[in-house]
């Protein structure tokens, strides 16, 4: 007999999720279609990459666009089914002012995910939800299996490309949304990947 799963959209709302105290452990969650989804602890490579990218982009913004900020693991509400979805990218950039009581990232222009082999499906599911946000102009997905990245950039007509731009090794990363340009390898300093030949 096949079990029929009830619609997940009758589950938890974003407001309920933000007030939820979790399951009593240190497990982090995001809200997917009304259901809390556990997020596995990041690998050390993932953590180094996340902190390095946050520092590089943060320094760049402080110098070139001080009204913009990089935020670690922000809550992002997709435009579609927003009342039952709160996704957590690794990093987000917004140029909206910080206000007391903000619990989700307002008007992100750039969202960054770090792709681990164990979370590939969930990461790409999140990426496609980010494309529903009208303020987002770029989505960067960084690899942890090697020095590489995939970049989705909103086109002039507002649409998204069918496939991301793939960069590897010595390629230069250009993030037009924040005017950032640097060798892709620079993001991987401190990781074992930086020390390995491409």
From TrEMBL:
Protein name: Putative restriction endonuclease domain-containing protein
PANTHER family in alphabetical order: GLR1098 PROTEIN, RESTRICTION ENDONUCLEASE DOMAIN-CONTAINING PROTEIN-RELATED
Species: Azospirillum lipoferum (strain 4B)
The Putative restriction endonuclease domain, residue ranges: 15-175
UniProt feature coiled coil, ranges: none
Lineage: Bacteria, Pseudomonadati, Pseudomonadota, Alphaproteobacteria, Rhodospirillales
């Amino acid at each position: 007999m096949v079990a029929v799963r009830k619609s997940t959209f009758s589950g938890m709302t974003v407001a309920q999720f933000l007030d939820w105290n979790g399951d009593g452990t240190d497990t982090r969650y995001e809200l997917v279609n009304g259901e809390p989804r556990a997020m596995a602890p990041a690998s050390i490579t993932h953590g180094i990459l996340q902190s390095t990218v946050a520092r590089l982009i943060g320094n760049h913004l402080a110098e070139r666009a001080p009204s913009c900020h990089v935020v670690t693991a922000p809550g992002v509400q997709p435009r579609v089914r927003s009342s039952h979805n709160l996704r957590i990218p690794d990093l987000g950039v917004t140029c909206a002012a910080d206000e007391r009581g903000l619990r989700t990232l307002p008007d992100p222009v750039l969202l960054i995910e770090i792709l681990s082999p164990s979370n590939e499906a969930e990461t790409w599911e999140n990426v496609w939800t980010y494309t529903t946000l009208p303020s987002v102009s770029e989505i960067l997905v960084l690899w942890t299996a090697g020095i590489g990245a995939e970049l989705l950039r909103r086109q002039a007509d507002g649409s998204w490309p069918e496939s991301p731009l793939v960069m590897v090794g010595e390629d230069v990363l250009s993030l037009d949304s924040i005017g950032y340009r640097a060798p892709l390898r620079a993001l991987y300093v401190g990781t074992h990947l930086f020390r390995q030949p491409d």
